[in-house]
Design brief:
alpha/beta
């Protein structure tokens, strides 16, 4: 049973469908309607998505998300923290609101989702938490210092939780995609100069599609990765190789 945040659209919707196709029961959480994701899952897998609406910035919404998932399915095997925002801003132009929104969604939301999931996983002595990071979990990027800080935090958070939760058989990993072709990144990829910069970061001259991340996500969620924890897996077309 897999719970995926930020699964109404973009990469999260693709992850939800992939998990359903792999045989998992899936719950999705988002601020906006999950109807489109639920419809595609129903049509392609005959499974029903548990649709949960709320704000990942709100701790009570996060707690309710986990509680409703467990009440419906009786358990929570895998949490995928995927909800996120990326609004580029130079340091001198950055606002307190942008800092707060980015940290609340990209880091605070992840932490409390991990907390409430772990409260259920610890007594069962099993579970997997996959926190979606980024190539900038490991390297800086000019004009994205707030986003880099949030995603760097995700990586260290995952390491710390892997140490803390390992004695209970709970694995925690960071999955770090490079730039993904989604609506969030559409403005960047529509700019020829920006797209060239993005492509130049890797060695494969390729932008990720959400489907490119899916095999690694499924692997990390499965028992095939039973000894994988506390680390970062990159799917970034070789950006970290440079």
């Amino acid at each position: 049973m897999v719970l995926i945040t930020g699964s109404a659209s973009g990469a999260g919707a693709v992850y939800a469908l992939a998990c359903a196709n792999a045989g998992a029961e899936v719950a999705g959480f988002d601020r906006i309607s999950l109807a489109a994701t639920a419809k595609r899952i129903r049509e392609e897998t005959d499974k029903e998505l548990l649709e949960l609406n709320g704000d990942i910035r709100n701790v009570k919404d996060i707690q309710r998300m986990v509680e409703k998932t467990i009440a419906h399915f009786g358990k929570l095997d895998v949490l995928v923290n995927n909800a996120g925002i990326c609004v580029p801003s130079d340091l001198v132009d950055a606002t307190e609101k942008l800092w707060d929104d980015t940290m609340d969604i990209n880091l605070k939301g992840y932490f409390f989702a991990c907390k409430f999931a772990a409260q259920h996983m610890i007594p069962r002595k099993s579970g997997v938490i996959i926190n979606i990071g980024s190539e900038v979990s490991h390297v800086g990027s000019g004009g994205e210092s707030i986003y880099c800080a949030s995603k760097g935090g995700v990586f260290i958070l995952s390491q710390a939780l892997a140490i803390e939760l390992g004695e209970y058989g709970i694995r925690v990993v960071t999955l770090c995609p490079g730039t993904i072709n989604t609506e969030m990144n559409a403005p960047l990829l529509a700019d020829p100069v920006k797209k060239k910069e993005i492509l130049s970061k890797g060695v494969l001259n390729r932008v990720n599609e959400p489907e490119d991340i899916v095999p690694t996500l499924i692997l990390l969620a499965s028992d095939a990765a039973r000894n994988v924890t506390g680390c970062s897996w990159s799917v970034d077309s070789g950006a970290l190789a440079k």
